[in-house]
Amino acid sequence: MSVTRRAAVLGSPIAHSLSPVLHRAAYAELGLADWEYDRFEVDEAALPGFLGKLGPEWAGLSLTMPLKRAVIPLLDEISDTAQSVEAVNTVVCTPDGRCRGDNTDIPGMVAALRERGVRQVERASVLGAGATASSALAALSRICTGEVTAYVRSEARADEMRGWGERLGVPVRTAAWADAAAAFEAPLTIATTPAGTTDALAAAVPDRPGTLFDVLYEPWPTALATAWADQGGAVVGGLDLLVHQAVLQVEQMTGRSPGPLAAMRRAGEAALAAR
Question: Which of 259, 255, 233 is nearest to 244 (CA)?
């Protein structure tokens, strides 16, 4: 009798996570009937205890906030990609109990853009300066040949983004959030801010915009994404990112490649439509 293989997403809060929907759809498509994927409410204080109880049936974990940095000292090793932004969203476990951390958000961003035909840009803009913004800079280090302008709300955030730029090898210029409409002059704009933050910028979308990557997936579409599409611009959304990074997680945890992108996207779209 085969042993059930297990994986799960951890975080706090976690009830909203689409990861179970995406991973279970992948297992169904790949014929992995003996695989299970769950979600667990786990905060930073509970994380060491959870990891300590993982048995040999565990293949891996997906991590969301606030665990992406807290997990690092608890792992046996982490990838260069995860180290570059000090954030782990993927843990792959081996039968001998070793756990390796990786970050699939960064290659997931690159893959989502590539799917829409964006393989290289000469400059880009980033709206926001949080954890997702540092991942955006890491992704841009792979596809942007010139300067990235980050639009931020404080000098402290500006310092952070310039620091990430230096660390990642990306030339970063910072500008005030009051001037954020100027971001749309770049061929690629990545919006990394919370829901509602960019709504006021929707009226500033130019007549012939480039590509917008808005990392939100709920609510969707955002006011900015709607205005962008209305002007004929290409839009990459948060579900695109979520699916692409999850495909990479499935590949790492199951050892099966390529992951079933289309089936996972259909499942994600259906789940969002039902909410």
Answer: 259
